[in-house]
């Protein structure tokens, strides 16, 4: 069998993302190491473990990360990842990842992360600005761009350059996400033989949205990205928008069919590859005793007497549209009083980016809306919404497996892996109620009930449709969605990129 992982990489690999594959902390027993959560980590860890020469450059996220980075004095460390993560010196006796932790000045990092990456770039790319009052770019925001976003990008780019040079100047460089739009161009300048790709995991809107940004800054961001050989997205729509931005905002020649941009003597390609989940890992989690115990508890609380359960699992991010989701549920109960006491809504929400005022305010708003709906519709001591602020993956998987409806009503979402996780794990004929603005809708929309994220009445009606859908139909749709995800898993996301990259970049 042909294995793209082998085929693609006669080059060493240098990865860059803000969050790394492991995280160091300290407890009573001393230093601890945990594996990072999420699809990106499992996809790219698999790749990094597989290769003889790979390094993952990422931010030092905890105090202990900073201590580890200090001890390694600017060079990389080796972390054995299996059976449990641990720092090793010398040869590991199992799969391992080489990690380079970058430490930056905390003030610069705060401007980079809490001012520019979130909210500015995240908000523009998710269409979250109302525009009449925010954003405002004063001298302070311009300075935060220079001393924060650009300075931190430069520090990470320097680490990437260092690692590429240590590998003879030739490497495959995989840059990830909106934190690092300035990196590719800087790395190309210093390492002209490197093959550079930048994958963007969030939506890419059309040129008009980008006009919100100061002209000099948006040009720098675009030019930075165009330092790559390939810019990757989850959907064709985002890739197209990117190419249109290069034409409209920079005046560069493009080919909209081929999705290419010509930059001086180079051709930059936009590509789309939908990210996915690791079904085997999800199956293993679902089979665990911990999940079984949660399932029993959730069934007891929510599913006695033919009751039904609506679920949402999200970070508390305004783009997830949590508040309108609850308003739609409130409307559903107002208009179908027979459902009161019969349908519960479990929301597992993880507090996120709470240093950013917009995010902190959003959590407060969620709390107020839930309190109001619960006050209006509590029946026989039973509150319709159970809001839990937790990050507990086994609990989420248990809830995935028994929910009747999953609601994903994002205003915009690059992909949304929760929908794919539920498709794999659900055993109850769960219906996906999926925003037309989530990347996952391109693959799963035909098996889902579509939601229009601003239309609260439409969402209430769609929830009603999902809850009253005949069981046979529910199972048919779920089985089809599960098949789609299992045959298009995260390994395929990676393989397709590598095969494509080898072809378009003509290396190896
Ligand atoms: C999204 C982004 C990731 C980011 C994650 C969590 O999925 O695409 O790059 O890591 O959100 O956000 P956080 O700010 O906690 O890293």
Automatic annotation (TrEMBL):
Q: EC no.?
A: 2.4.1.15
Q: Which GO terms describe its molecular function?
A: alpha,alpha-trehalose-phosphate synthase (UDP-forming) activity; trehalose-phosphatase activity
Superkingdom of the source species: Bacteria
Q: What class of enzyme is it?
A: transferase
Which InterPro entries does the protein's record reference?
A: Glyco_trans_20
Q: Which UniProt keywords apply?
A: Glycosyltransferase, Transferase
CDD domains per the record?
A: GT20_TPS (cd03788)
Q: Which GO terms describe its cellular component?
A: cytosol
Q: Which GO terms describe its biological process?
A: trehalose biosynthetic process
Protein name, please? Trehalose 6-phosphate synthase
Q: Which organism is it from?
A: Frankia casuarinae (strain DSM 45818 / CECT 9043 / HFP020203 / CcI3)
């Amino acid at each position: 069998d042909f294995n793209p992982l082998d085929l693609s990489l006669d080059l060493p690999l240098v990865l860059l993302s803000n969050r790394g594959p492991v995280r160091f902390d300290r407890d009573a027993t001393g230093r601890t190491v945990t594996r990072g959560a999420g699809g990106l980590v499992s996809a790219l860890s698999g790749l990094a473990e597989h290769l003889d020469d790979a390094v993952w450059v990422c931010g030092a996220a905890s105090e202990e990360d900073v201590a580890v980075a200090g001890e390694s004095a600017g060079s990389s460390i080796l972390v054995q990842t299996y059976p449990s993560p641990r720092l090793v010196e010398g040869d590991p006796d199992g799969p391992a990842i080489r990690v380079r932790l970058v430490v930056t000045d905390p003030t610069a990092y705060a401007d980079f992360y809490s001012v520019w990456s979130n909210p500015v770039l995240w908000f523009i790319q998710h269409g979250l600005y109302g525009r009449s009052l925010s954003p405002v770019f004063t001298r302070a925001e311009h300075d935060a761009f220079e001393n924060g976003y650009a300075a931190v990008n430069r520090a990470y780019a320097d680490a990437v350059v260092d690692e590429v040079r240590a590998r003879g100047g030739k490497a495959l460089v995989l840059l990830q996400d909106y934190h690092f739009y300035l990196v590719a161009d800087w790395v190309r300048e210093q390492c002209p033989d490197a093959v550079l790709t930048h994958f963007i995991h969030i939506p890419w809107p059309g040129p008009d949205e980008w006009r919100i940004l100061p002209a000099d800054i948006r040009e720098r961001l675009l030019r930075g990205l165009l330092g790559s050989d390939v810019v990757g997205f989850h959907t064709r729509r985002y890739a197209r928008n990117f190419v249109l931005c290069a034409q409209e905002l920079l005046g560069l020649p493009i080919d909209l069919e081929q999705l290419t941009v010509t930059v001086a003597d180079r051709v930059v390609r936009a590509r789309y590859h939908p990210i996915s989940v690791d079904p085997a890992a999800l199956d293993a989690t679902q089979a665990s005793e911990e999940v079984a115990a949660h399932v029993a508890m959730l069934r007891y609380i929510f599913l006695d007497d033919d009751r039904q359960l609506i679920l949402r699992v999200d970070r508390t991010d305004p783009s997830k549209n949590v508040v309108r989701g609850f308003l739609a549920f409130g409307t559903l109960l107002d208009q179908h009083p027979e459902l009161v006491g019969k349908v519960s809504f479990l929301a597992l929400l993880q507090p996120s980016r709470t240093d950013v005022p917009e995010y902190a305010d959003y959590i407060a708003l969620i709390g107020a809306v839930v309190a109001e709906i619960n006050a209006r519709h509590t029946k026989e001591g039973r509150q319709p919404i159970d809001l839990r602020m937790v990050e507990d993956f086994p609990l989420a998987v248990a809830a995935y497996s028994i929910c009747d409806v999953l609601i994903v009503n994002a205003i915009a979402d690059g992909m949304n892996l929760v929908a794919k996780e539920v498709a794999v794990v659900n055993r109850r004929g769960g219906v996906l109620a999926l925003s037309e603005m989530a990347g996952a809708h391109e693959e799963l929309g035909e098996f889902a009930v579509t939601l229009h994220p601003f239309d609260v009445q439409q969402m209430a009606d769609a929830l009603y449709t999902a809850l009253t859908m005949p069981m046979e139909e529910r199972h048919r749709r779920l089985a089809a969605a599960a098949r789609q995800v299992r045959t298009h898993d995260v390994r395929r996301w990676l393989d397709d990129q590598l095969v494509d990259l080898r072809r378009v970049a003509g290396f190896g």
